[in-house]
């Protein structure tokens, strides 16, 4: 790939030597200092535990400008994609780099649709879980098990096998997610119906019951599709970096994506949507907001405002804006006057006027409003991160594929600074 261009030299004076390191510029965003040769030339490592100043790769998929609150997928602003496109079209864009023509889109949609069903023995796989298992525990297990049921696409070095694995993952995630929900609520699994759109199919698999005719609500299906778009990819976040690192060893896509699912579960990452709605419910009413704002600012209190703050966005997360608008549309459509949305809006207003949040540039992120919508649509809180993983699967596959196809790609193997015990000899237990 390597389309980054050298535009300068960074000089580092260390250990009595001056090391010259290339400075590279991309299409958008900060330049980078290429430190690949640093250890070989200066016998030192760099150290950046949270990767706050470290780029892990060159990528052409997603660009985020945290200061301006900009998110582009293959150059297209997220606001335009959310307003004018659909999740499968955005999926094609992320995977292939360009928006599809009508014939390309028809072919891609057909390909995904042909892989929505699950191996019947996977259904028995669920019987091994307790009924009250956390949905993310079941998703981590079932995605990790996919390679046991679909052994035919395991060679990541084969483009056709990789592609088939990506299609299977994108196509089967909604079926897996819906089965997880049905297993939790003790209702029979509902199979995909391929004359429905991706989002309609998913909602029907979740909420249809054999005893009644099911009609998809087009407003909710459109909102679901938009929520999928808003979660599809986000540059080198924790779970995507996990997928890249797992895949860098040659692990097949199912294993790499299962690793991403596990990473996403954390409350600092994808688990924040579940934590945020729980927090909004705990706050309960606008008059309790000051108490929680004070706790969020208290250094001695581990409490944080869930759905607020971001490693990259130091401005409004553009996805949160679209999500807030969608929340209002869904609640109106469903005729729900959910006090939680009022609490969320008032919490946002108060926080954004508070010096602590202004100084630390803490704004609502993608997880702040998503839970309000998903709750109104009938999803239990514990399912929220499963829906995030469902949508992010195409981003994980796109980023994994970009890494595999990058000729400079090598197994990811970070180093460290060692501060443990110096060399010492073993002492027999009787002498200790
Ligand atoms: C996602 O990376 C991605 O792109 C992720 C994601 C994606 O699409 O993949 O966008 C999805 O994960 C969104 C983020 C969801 N997480 C949350 O909403 C959890 C709450 N947010 C925080 O835990 C935090 O903001 C993080 C984890 C999101 C970011 O953490 P950073 O970048 O490591 O920032 P930090 O923890 O160092 O915080 C900087 C300061 C700290 O204060 P000081 O130590 O400097 O005094 O801001 C404070 C923090 O205490 N702070 C908060 C806060 N977030 C940060 N204080 C109160 N409430 C918060 N939410």
Structural overview:
Helix content is 50%, strand content 7%. It has helices at 38-42, 78-84, 87-96, 102-113, 120-126, 135-149, 159-185, 198-207, 218-230, 238-247, 253-264, 272-283, 289-297, 318-333, 339-352, 355-359, 367-377, 384-405; strands spanning 5-14, 17-25, 32-33, 62-65, 70-73, 76-77. The strands form two sheets. The protein has a three-stranded antiparallel β-sheet with strand order 1-2-3. It has a three-stranded antiparallel β-sheet with strand order 4-5-6. Helix 7 (159-185) packs antiparallel against helix 18. The model has no long low-confidence stretch (mean pLDDT 95). Bound molecules: s-citryldethia Coenzyme A. S-citryldethia Coenzyme A binds at residues 50, 234, 237, 268-270, 272, 296, 304-312, 360, 362, 365-367.
Ligands bound here?
A: s-citryldethia Coenzyme A
Shape: globular
Q: Evaluate the radius of gyration.
A: 23 Å
Nearest-integer average pLDDT: 95
| Relative helix content | 40-55%
What's the main sheet like?
3 strands, antiparallel
Estimated structural class: mainly alpha
Order of helices and strands: EEEHEEEHHHHHHHHHHHHHHHHH
> What is the CA–CA distance across the termini?
57 Å
Topology:
Elements: E1 5-14, E2 17-25, E3 32-33, H1 38-42, E4 62-65, E5 70-73, E6 76-77, H2 78-84, H3 87-96, H4 102-113, H5 120-126, H6 135-149, H7 159-185, H8 198-207, H9 218-230, H10 238-247, H11 253-264, H12 272-283, H13 289-297, H14 318-333, H15 339-352, H16 355-359, H17 367-377, H18 384-405
Antiparallel strand pairs: 1-2, 2-3, 4-5, 5-6
């Amino acid at each position: 790939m390597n389309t980054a261009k050298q535009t300068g030299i960074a000089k580092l004076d260390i250990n009595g030597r001056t090391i010259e390191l290339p400075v590279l510029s991309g299409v958008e965003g900060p330049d980078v200092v290429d430190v690949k040769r640093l250890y070989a030339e200066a016998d030192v490592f760099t150290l950046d535990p949270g990767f706050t100043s470290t780029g892990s790769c060159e990528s052409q998929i997603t660009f985020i400008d945290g200061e301006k609150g900009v998110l582009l997928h293959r150059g297209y602003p997220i606001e335009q994609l959310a307003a004018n496109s659909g999740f499968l079209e955005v999926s094609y864009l992320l995977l292939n780099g360009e928006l599809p023509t009508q014939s390309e889109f028809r072919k891609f949609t057909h390909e995904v649709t042909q892989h929505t069903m699950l191996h019947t023995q996977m259904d028995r796989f669920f019987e091994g879980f307790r009924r009250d298992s956390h949905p993310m525990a079941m998703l981590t297990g079932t995605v990790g098990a996919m390679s046991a049921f679909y052994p035919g696409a395991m060679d990541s070095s084969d483009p056709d096998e990789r592609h088939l694995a990506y299609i299977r993952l994108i196509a089967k995630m909604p079926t897996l997610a819906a089965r997880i929900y049905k297993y939790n609520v003790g209702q029979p699994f509902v199979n995909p119906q391929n004359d429905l759109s991706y989002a309609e199919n998913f909602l029907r698999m979740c909420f249809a019951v054999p005893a009644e005719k099911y009609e998809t609500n087009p407003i909710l299906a459109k909102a679901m599709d938009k929520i999928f778009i808003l979660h599809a990819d986000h540059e080198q976040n924790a779970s995507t970096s996990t997928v890249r690192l797992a895949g860098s060893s040659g692990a097949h896509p199912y294993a790499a994506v299962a690793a991403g699912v596990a990473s996403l579960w954390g409350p600092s990452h994808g688990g924040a949507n579940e934590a945020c709605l729980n927090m909004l419910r705990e706050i309960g009413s606008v008059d309790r907001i000051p108490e929680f704002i004070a706790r969020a600012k208290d250094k001695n209190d581990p409490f944080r405002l869930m759905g607020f703050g971001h490693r990259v966005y130091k401005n409004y997360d553009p996805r949160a804006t679209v999500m807030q608008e969608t929340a209002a549309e869904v609640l109106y459509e469903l005729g729900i006057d959910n006090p939680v949305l009022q609490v969320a809006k008032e919490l946002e207003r108060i926080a954004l006027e508070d010096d602590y949040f202004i100084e630390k540039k803490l704004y609502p992120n993608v997880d702040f409003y998503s839970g309000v919508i998903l709750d109104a649509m009938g999803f239990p809180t514990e399912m929220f991160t499963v829906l995030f993983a469902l949508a992010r699967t195409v981003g994980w596959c796109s980023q994994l594929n970009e890494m595999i196809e990058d000729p400079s790609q090598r197994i990811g193997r970070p180093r460290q600074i060692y501060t443990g015990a110096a060399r010492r000899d073993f002492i027999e237990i009787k002498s200790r």
